[in-house]
Each structure stands twice: as structure tokens, then as C-alpha cells.
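Thread amino acids onto this structure.
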């Protein structure tokens, strides 16, 4: 696994309105886990294209739930770049399983998804994020940031020049 620097670049995330007040937390993914993080690991899932962020938020539903599209400026010194997918000459065989149906494995079968083991390996190697192709938006790219591991030289900035994002969750109490 090779770590590479990323950015500065613009990334996007569609947040549920309730969680738009904490756009860099990664706490939602830490609650239940995600493709590249097990429960308890904070992870912020972003997309490199606005359309990909919207499609990832919508998933397979024919209807779009309410959401707030947020832009970020990102620079990270160490990410795993898995955009091209599995290549037996460059990756260990377990990476072939990165796109497993992690939800089915964890929630229905109670089996640890291989993608969680891969994320653990990336974190142990010093990665602060992982780039990978979107399966929902063909041609789109996702970036998961392990925001609690960001260090000096890394940057994650929310673009909100007018202060329009909510400051807290008081509206939902």
C-alpha cells in the first residue's frame, strides 16, 4: 500500500439537515460504521464531484431526501489511492474485497466486512484517508477522511462564507 499526498482540492458532502451543524465531525459514520470504517471510527465520507456527493446521499432511492450540500477544501499528506481498484501486482489480495456488500455482511450476517480490515490496515500504515471509485455514480470518486487522524500539514475547511450552516441542533429538539 502506497501513501500519497492529496490536494489542495475541492470535495463535497450532502448532509442530512440535522447534522449540517457539524460538517467535519465524522460522528455519523462512527455510530454504525461505513464501507471504510468500523463503528467507533470517525470517518467523513466526501466526493470529489458535487454530483457524486448527491448520488451517494440518495443511494438507490428514487426520491431525494432533504439535504444540505457542503463544499470543502482538502489537503491531506497521506492517503491511500484506490481509485483504479484492485491490481494483483500492486495490492494484497484482500483489497479485491473492498467493494463487498458491507451492509449485508455486518447488519444481516454479523460478519466483519473485509473493507473494515483494509481500513484498519490503512490507518495502521499512517493513512489519513482513502480515495476510491464510487459504485453509485459511475466515474465518480469518493474520499473518506479519518478526520481524527489529521495532523499538521493537513487541512479540512468547510466553505461557508455567509455562515449559512446551522450552528447547533436546536431546531431538531
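Threaded sequence (173 positions):
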Amino acid at each position: 500500500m502506497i501513501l500519497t499526498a492529496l490536494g489542495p482540492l475541492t470535495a463535497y458532502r450532502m448532509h442530512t439537515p440535522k447534522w449540517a451543524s457539524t460538517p467535519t465531525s465524522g460522528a455519523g459514520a462512527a455510530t454504525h460504521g461505513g464501507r471504510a470504517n468500523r463503528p467507533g471510527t470517525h470517518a467523513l465520507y466526501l466526493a470529489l464531484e458535487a454530483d457524486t456527493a448527491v448520488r451517494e446521499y440518495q443511494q438507490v432511492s428514487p426520491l431525494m431526501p432533504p439535504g444540505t450540500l457542503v463544499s470543502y477544501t482538502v489537503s491531506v499528506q497521506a492517503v491511500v489511492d484506490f481509485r483504479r481498484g484492485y491490481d494483483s501486482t500492486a495490492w494484497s489480495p484482500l483489497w479485491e474485497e473492498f467493494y463487498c456488500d458491507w451492509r449485508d455482511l455486518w447488519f444481516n450476517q454479523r460478519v466483519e466486512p473485509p473493507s473494515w480490515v483494509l481500513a484498519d490496515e490503512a490507518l495502521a500504515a499512517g493513512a489519513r484517508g482513502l480515495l476510491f471509485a464510487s459504485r453509485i455514480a459511475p466515474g465518480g470518486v469518493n474520499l473518506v477522511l479519518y478526520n481524527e487522524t489529521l495532523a499538521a500539514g493537513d487541512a479540512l475547511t468547510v466553505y461557508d462564507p455567509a455562515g449559512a450552516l446551522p450552528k447547533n441542533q436546536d431546531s431538531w429538539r
